[in-house]
Amino acid sequence: MLPVLFLAALAAAAAQNDTQPARPPSPRREQFRVIYEWNVIDFEWRSPADREAYLSTNRYIPQNVLISGINFYGENLFLTVPRMLDGVPATLATVPVQQSDTAPKLKPFPSWEDNAVGNCSALQFVQNVEIDKNGVMWILDNGRVGTLTQKPNPMCPPSLVLIDLKSGKNEMERIPFPAEILNSNTTYLNDIVVDNRDGDYAYITDNSAVDPGIIVFRRSDKKSWKVRDTKSMSSMPEASAFRINGTSINLPVNIDGIALGPQFYTSDGNIDRTIYYCPLSSFHLYAINASVLRNDSIEGTDGSIRPYVVDLGTKASQTDGMKMDSNGVLFFGLIGNSTIAEWNTTVNFHVGQRTIARDPNYIQWVDRFTFDDRGNIYVVVNRLYNFVKNQVFTKEVNYRILKSFTGSKSYIFSEDLKPAGLPGAAAVPTLGASVLFIALAHLLA
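Given the sequence above, the corresponding structure tokens read:
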């Protein structure tokens, strides 16, 4: 039987909650439990002979296959398998939501052919995906493979790939990013959130070592632009050292995780949302309003958005992936603490952070989160520090998916507000959880 992970000590949680303002009671919660775990990742091959052929030609090297991203749709969990090293036969795959095996084989998605290395019509290097409320999958394909090797190969342009899952045809629409926006030799498309308002927007973190930033993509006209802010999007030296279960590693990684808050009314009656983000190598969480990034006339040079960025404060440790639910509760990992945490964004960040699970044996590098349609949250734990150091031991469990019932659903399904003045809209527009409100709370804390 796969283990259940214990919540943090009740005394510590109670002490922390004593400092928090009153807020609505949380829904009934379950402890996190392991639903899937693997020593190494294997696939649903077309035949045993095909598997042997991949092994004999080093197109499949089991210890080089790592699970990173996760998303949910229908009866499947979609897993991303970035080609950081050689020997990764597929970069996007599925496993069933309903368990039949504790270590299922991954089924390449959409097909084996659509994961062929070197075919620029196929997926090359998928770090993360998002699935919007219309059933469209948004795929980040870096195009460059072997990013942890001596000679990374930018064999295809970095692209956004769209698949309409509702149709069932799984046809890919590939939209390469313009060369003047992204450098295919240095860009690293890391994470994505999608806003289905006004023709659909995506906000994408690029943790390029030389040009970090947030890429904004507008689907209605397929236009993209990039915004930069060195202070909030760059790694910090004091946060570049990681220590997990006695293993130390130095990773000066720039902007990484990103999350999108619920809609709110601004003081002038417009509708906005807050974007939250952080570098991997940082203890800070930052916020900016989506309306700022949506302005395609804003200068892409460093510092153009600096007046609009709010530093919400510090976390106990570094964070990789994060995910917002539809009510504005942010779920995130604290890597050095072997912890999963949450924050209700209506509460000041300094006092509102709460540990919901801690276990040094099972929570070793939280990577990404997703929600299903039944109130469950899923978490990928992948011991990335061992993978980067080439210390993956195939006789140990290296990859896990954890699950907990939270009663939550994804931010994708947060309430759609009506413009002020229309029937059903709020009689008096309120500021909501805007960055301005958060900034004031920060100053008054």
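Residues 10-444 form a domain with the Neuraminidase fold (CATH 2.120.10.30). Try to locate this feature in the token string yourself.
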